[in-house]
Amino acid sequence: MSEAYRRFARALRNACALVVKPVGSGAWFLNYPFRPWRRTLADRERLDLLRLLLPEAPVCGFLVDDDHYETLLAAIGVERSVPTSQAPWLFLPTEDALRSLDQLYEGNWSLFLFDRTPTEPPPVPRGLGLDPDTVRQCLDELGASVAVLSLPDDLEWLVVLAVREVEPPLG
User: Fold this and answer.
1) 149: number of Cβ within 10 Å
2) Among 54, 35, 52, 25, which residue's Cα sits nearest to residue 162?
3) Is residue 9 one of the residues assigned to a domain?
4) DSSP letter for each residue of 17-35
5) What is d(CA 8, CA 86) in angstroms, rounded to the nearest whole number?
6) Looking at 116-125, 133-142, 152-161, which range is the least confident one?
């Protein structure tokens, strides 16, 4: 297991605003806290957690529907110059993608971290669901390292690593 994954697992154990629920080895639900005044800290913790994975996967592939696609492009200040052959994928340096997450507060988006930009747009996964094993199979098919699935209203994320040998963060 890489040092980035170890740091990520350690940071999950130390999260103070997020509610972290392990759902198997290498998969967690990150929930917003029940107390609204802790949400700003929770937002920061979610982004800090994802930043720990950047050494493993510096390229972000957003998979969003048409409504969110325009929102995401506007959030990062890009005109619709992205080749439509890549849609519904949008590949960005991960740090740019992380800065734009607050614009996607409605949820229902997926983010995949890759070690490099795919030469061809990957196939669009169908029926991802919330089963970590299904998501991990999708990661294998896409050649991605990490998946982050945002549920409706962006209150809960499912984070799944391609590797399984990450100890559960709580225990």
Assistant:
1) 22
2) 25
3) yes
4) SSEEEE-STTEEEEE--SS
5) 30
6) 116-125
Integer CA distances (angstroms), 83 to 22, 80, 112, in order: 38, 8, 19
Does a structural domain hold residue 74? yes
Buried b (16+ CB within 10 A) or exposed e, 110-139: bbbbbeeebeeebeebeebeeebeebbebb
Enter the tokens of residue 75: 């959030």
Q: State both tokens at 53.
A: 């994975």
CB–CB of 141/100 below 8 Å? no
Q: Which residue has the higher pLDDT, 167 or 119?
A: 119
Domain contains 166? no
pLDDT at 90: 78
For the stretch 73-125, pLDDT in tens is 666 666 554 555 555 777 877 777 777 776 667 777 888 988 888 888 788 88
Q: Number of structural domains, the chain?
A: 1
The predicted model gives 17-35 an average pLDDT of: 87
> According to the model, what pLDDT value does residue 21 have?
92
